[in-house]
Amino acid sequence: MGLNHIFLFIAVISPLLVLARAWRPGGIFHGWRIAAIIVLAITGAAWLFFREYAGYVGGGAWFALLFLPAVGLRKASQLAAHGRYESARRLTALLQFLHPTAQLRDQVQLFQTLESRNAASPKIQVEPLPQIVYRRLRIAPAVVIFILLNLAAYGVELWRDALNNPIMLHRLGALDVSAVINGGEFWRLFTALFLHYNPVHLVFNLFALYVLGPPLEKTIGTVRFAACYLISGIGSTAGVVVLTQLKIIRAAELIGASGCIMGIVGAWAGFLLRHHHVWQAKQRLLNILLIIAIQIVFDIFTPEVSSSAHLCGLASGFLIGLAVAPKRTPFSQSV
Question: Are the CB atoms for 181 and 189 separated by under 8 Å?
Fold first, then answer.
């Protein structure tokens, strides 16, 4: 799974999601639809003429026309919320070069008005990114532990040169169905969850854990979250073993925390389906279903990944989510 393939997937799926949102009542602004169509057009042209680099070209267009404006607008809103209207106006004005739409022009005028009305107001410092990350992880000790375990395991892989040596990777604990069934090496169901093929594989899984893990851990508790992560992960590797034995899928060595991550997604789905009374449960469930749909599409077009492991982890997490109860603390985190 190379970067070109990943960027190509993002450059196609993300604009399609933007266009899909345009059909909702009170949906996105017209300018975002135009930007999405431009990204799709650039990606399609690159696919026709420069297929080996289409992902990089399309990914660059997505980053410039959709990602940067979206992140920039969010940052501008945060600046305005903290009374820094001049900084918000300048940032929005810069974004107009990438996204020259009526929405941004209205935002610039709004920030100018607020700036003139609050010229004498004291400046309030915006919380730095490291503090935001720290505050998010402070409520999720299990997430921190799993991130550190994955990083430590990757450090061992680098130390033993396992990334370039399949034999060493097998010794470290890659999932080998034959070794599990014939050799009784059931510990591989666990160790395979902490190994990764390359930095991209590791970063994607850890980023997903950072995004999805803390709110779920705060909602159901640290012990139950840790159990959900591990049980759904082992459910994914055990499911692969069973499906291989039934000759439904072909035998292959597998590693990665993707089964655990999909277990978190499944747990969110099961939890929100059962506890539909919690705040914004319907919207959050729709977000989770969207994540599942994107993952399924990605698996279909990426033969290098194990869709079976993802689905088994998803199913295991879903069953856990149906059974687990929320903590007594308010349900305040968003998915």
Answer: no
Residue 14 bears catalytic tag: no
Out of 3.10.50.30, 3.40.50.620, 3.40.30.10, 1.20.1540.10, which CATH number does the structure's domain 129-323 have? 1.20.1540.10
* Spatial separation of the C-alpha atoms in residues 185 and 181, rounded to whole Å: 7
Structure confidence at residue 81 as a pLDDT band (50, 70, 90): confident
Q: 3-state DSSP call for residue 115?
A: helix
CA of residue 62 relative to chain centroid, distance: 17
Domain residues of the chain, as ranges?
3-117, 129-323
pTM, two decimals, is: 0.71
Q: What is the DSSP string of 154-196?
A: HHHHHHTTGGG-HHHHHHHT-B-HHHHHHH--TTHHHHGGG--
Whether residue 244 contacts residue 250, with contact meaning beta carbons closer than 8 Å, is answered with yes
- Unique residue bearing structure tokens 């970067």: 3
DSSP bridge pairs for 254: 175
Average pLDDT over residues 22-38: 69
**Do residues 84 and 126 touch, judged by C-beta distance below 8 A?**
yes
Percentage of the chain exceeding pLDDT 70? 85
d(CA 52, CA 46): 9
The tokens describing 308, both together, are 């079976």
258 is catalytic: yes
Q: Which of these is catalytic: 232, 236, 258, 308?
A: 258
Q: How far apart are CA 130 and CA 203, in angstroms?
A: 17
